[in-house]
Amino acid sequence: MRLLATLLLLLLLRSAEPRRGPRSGAEARGAGGRVRGRGRAAVTRRQTQECKEYMEAGEKYLDCQDRQLTTVMQDWPKDIHHLLLARNRFQVLRDNMFSQFTQLKSLDLQQNDISMVEDGAFSGLSQLTTLLLQHNGLRTATEEVLLPLPRLTYLRLYDNPWDCLCPLDSLIRTLQVPSNRNLGNYAKCAEPESLRGQKLKMLRVESLCVDRRPESGGGGTRPPPIKAKPEITFLCHTYMFPRPLLDCSSKDLNYIPTDLPSDIVKMDLSRNSIKHLRPKHFLLSKDLKLLNLSGNGLQHIDKASFAGLLYLRELDLSNNSLHYFQYGVLEDLYFLRKLSLDNNPWICDYNIHYLIYWLKHHPGVFHTGLICSEPQEFRGWRVEDYVKTYNGECPKDKQNGVNGMDTGQGGQVGSDNDAQDVTGETVEGQGENLSQPLKKKPNKFEIIRLS
Q1: 238 and 260 Cβ atoms separated by less than 8 Å
Q2: Phi, psi angle pair for 180, to nearest 5°
Q3: Which of 93, 380, 388, 425 could form a disulfide with 430 if both were Cys (CB 3.0 to 4.6 A apart)?
Q4: 3-state class of 165 per DSSP?
Q5: pTM recorded for the entire structure
C-alpha cells in the first residue's frame, strides 16, 4: 500500500507540472504592464547609457559628447534644453534631424566631421539661441539653414574650410546684418586663394559671384582646396550654457591662445605649461569674469598682462612658481573679488610688499595662500605678518642712525614707503625716542623782530 501511494503521488505531481507553467504565464500576463514597462526602460537605458542626463539651474542637459555617434536617437528625452554632441562622427545634418527637441535652447555640434547641412536640418528649433558648428568640414551653406531659428543669438562657424564663392552669398549677407553681431564671428575663407584668411563678416559680398575661371586654358583643373590652418583654440572646447566657457585645461599649451572669443565669461587655462604672461594677452576678453591659470608652473607676469579685464571677479593663480608680483601688475583688476594664490613659493623680501600694499587698499578681495617659502627664517609665516615685522623694525634702524650708530647708508636704502611708515608710527606715539629730535628742529631757528 505504501508503494502504491507513493506511485500515485508521483503521478499527481507530474501531471500538475504542465499546469504550473501556464499559470505562471498567466500571472506574467496579469502583470504585463509592469513587465513591458521594465523592458522599455531597459531598452531606453541601453540606448542612452553612454549619455549623461542632468539638471542645472532648472534646465535639462543631455551630454552625449565623445560617443562616436553618427545620428540622434529617437528615444532620447524630448524635453531637453541643451544637447551636447561635440566630438562625435556626424557628417551630414539631414532635414528635421532635431525637430523632436522643440524646447532646445543650445545645440553643440563642434568637432565632428560635418561637411553638409541640409536647409531643413534645424526645423522645429524655434527656441534655439546657441548653435556651435566650429571645427568641422563645412564649405558652403545658405541662409535657409538659419530661417527656422528666429531666436538664434550665438552662432560659431570658425575653423571650417569655407569656399567663399557665389553659393555662400546669402549666408554671408545674413551674417553681416548689424543686428547679428554674434553670428559667425572669426569664420574665415579657405578658398579661393585670393580670399584665403579673410573673415566672412568682412568680405565684400559683391565679389563672391565674380567669374574666377582661369584665363589661360592650361590644365583647367582646379587645385584641391586647402583647409584653413586651425587656430590653437581647436584644442579647446567652448560651452555656452549655463554661461560661456572656454575650456583649454590640460592641452599642453605653452602660451595664451590667440583670437580668444570676446564674449567668453569663464576661461579655464589650468594644468598647461604657460610660464610667462605677456602684456595684453586678454585685451579683447572684456566680458571675462573668471580666469583659471592654476597648475602652469607660471613664473613671470608682466605689467599690463591683465589689461582689459575690467570686470574680472575671480583669478586663480594657485599651484604655480610665482615669487612676487611686479609693481603695477594688479592695477587693471578693478572689480576683483577672489584671488587664489596657494602653493606658490613666495619669497618674503621687499619685492613682496607691493602685493600686500595692493591687498590692503582692496579690502573687498578675498585671498588665500600667502605663505612665505623663503628665506629660511620666515618659512611658514603669513606674508602679512612678515610685512608687519619688516615695517616694525624700521623705527629702530632710524633710531640707531640718529644716535650715531648708523653708517649713513640706511637712509638711501629706505624708500618713500618706509618713510611714510616711520612717520605714521611716530605720530601714533610708537617711536618716542625718534620723536624727540623732530621736536627740537624748530629750536634751531630764532625769529628776530626788527623795530
Answers
A1: no
A2: -95, 50
A3: 425
A4: coil
A5: 0.51
* Helix runs in 52-202, H state only: 169-175
> Cα separation of 27 and 227, whole Å?
64
Among 71, 100, 85, smallest CA distance to 130 is for: 85
pLDDT of 385 > 70? The answer is yes
Whether pLDDT at 209 is above 90: no
Alpha carbons 322 and 331: distance in angstroms, whole number? 18
More confident residue, 442 or 320: 320
Query: Measuring CA to CA, which residue among 357, 346, 329, 425 is closest to residue 382?
Result: 346
Residue 324 identity: Y
| Nearest residue to 236 (alpha-carbon basis) of 264, 198, 276, 275 | 264
In Å, how far are 6, 280, 361, 419 from 331, measured between CA atoms?
A: 101, 13, 11, 23
Query: Cell 527656441 belongs to which residue?
Result: 127
Look at residue 218 and tell me whether its pLDDT is greater than 60.
no
- CATH 3.30.70.270 is right for the domain spanning 49-207: no
Rounded to 5°, the CA angle 419-369-315 comes to 95
Which superfamily, per CATH, for 243-381? Ribonuclease Inhibitor (3.80.10.10)
> Helix-strand-coil percent breakdown of the chain, rounded to 5?
30, 15, 55
Strands (E), 218-376: 237-239, 245-247, 266-268, 276-277, 290-292, 300-301, 314-316, 338-340, 346-347, 366-368, 372-374
- Do β-strands 82-84 and 59-63 pair in parallel, antiparallel, or remain unpaired? parallel
For residues 387 and 426, give the distance between their C-alpha atoms in angstroms, rounded to a whole number. Answer: 18
Helix pair angle (383-402, 432-440), 10° resolution? 40
Cβ neighbors of 225 (< 8 A, separation 6 or more) are 139, 161, 163, 190, 191
Q: Which residues contact 79 (CB under 8 A, 6 or more apart)?
A: 60, 103
Give the model's confidence band at 392: pLDDT under 50 very low, under 70 low, under 90 confident, else very high.
Answer: low
**Is residue 36 scored above 80 in pLDDT?**
no
pLDDT tens figures, 415-442: 444 434 433 343 343 433 333 334 444 4
